[in-house]
Amino acid sequence: MFSKTCEHAIRAMIFVAQKSRMGEKTGIREIAKAVDSPEQFIAKILQDLSRKGLVRSLKGPTGGFFHDEHTLNRPIADIVKALDGDKIFKNCALGLKQCSESHPCPLHEEFKKLRNGISLLLEKTTLSKCSEVQAKHLVFLRR
User: Fold this and answer.
1) Does residue 126 sit in helix, strand or coil?
2) Which CATH architecture has domain 4-85+126-135?
3) DSSP state of 64
4) Crossing angle, helix 76-84 and helix 4-21, to 10 degrees?
5) β-pair partners for 126
6) Where are the domains of the chain?
7) How many whole angstroms separate alpha carbon 80 and alpha carbon 30?
8) How far apart are CA 27 and CA 65, in angstroms?
């Protein structure tokens, strides 16, 4: 459903959110290990998300990646849009360019329900909410 980049980003952002809730900043090595991703790959993704204002970072010995109140309350949808665009929220199930309410594809009505459900889920689920569940050890971030 998501690109590999987006999958890794969401996992990394949830891990950073969990650390941030404990008042900690975290480095690339720790993030990569926690979410089972290559360090350089995660570094590139988080730098991009930092430039887009979705995660904070500080350089230096006490630096690392972290979330503040604003970024903790961003929905997962913002990460998806920043990395994969909004196609998951708008595109046709069959990839048709002309699919619309007035000119639907054979899957249009049923897929619209699924797409709207996914959109609602990603818009209402924040990094803070995900990190709360993660902190209770009810879910995992590694493959």
Assistant:
1) strand
2) Orthogonal Bundle (1.10)
3) E
4) 140
5) 75
6) 4-85+126-135
7) 23
8) 6
Spatial distance between the Cα atoms of 20 and 131, rounded to a whole number of angstroms:
9
pLDDT for 62 equals 86
Instruction: State pLDDT tens for residues 79-93.
Output: 999 999 998 898 999
Q: Token match 């809730």: residue? A: 21
How far from each other are the two terminal CA atoms of the chain, in whole angstroms?
16
Token look-up 């010995």 returns 61
| pTM, two decimal places | 0.88
d(CA 78, CA 19): 20
Angle, helices 4-21 vs 28-35, to 10°: value is 110
Pair of tokens at residue 15 = 């891990």
State the pairing for strand pair 64-66/56-58. Answer: antiparallel
Angle subtended by helix axes 39-51 and 76-84, to nearest 10: 100
Closest CA to 72 of 139, 111, 130, 118: 130
- The one-letter amino acid code at 48 reads D
